[in-house]
Amino acid sequence: MAKTAVVTSPECGAQFPPPDALPLDGFSRWHDLRSFVPFSRETLRKREMEGRFPRRHRLSQRCAAWPNREIHRWFADPVNYRVEDK
């Protein structure tokens, strides 16, 4: 029997099931990606620096997120993915 994790919202205490998929548009933070990425946060950071994982965007001084379109591009071909220079 599969267990389903429950996500609790700190503002109101409401419980929501975890998302089954990332939306195609928008941005995702690490806690959104954690269940979809098969390696640790540090490995992700190293691959990001090597250009083998999408680069995060700084939303504020302490908040960074990855563009979902790039994450889906990485999902399609993680072995051959390379960041496009802009």
UniProtKB/TrEMBL annotation:
Top-level lineage group: Bacteria
One Pfam entry name: Phage_AlpA
UniProt name for this protein: AlpA family phage regulatory protein
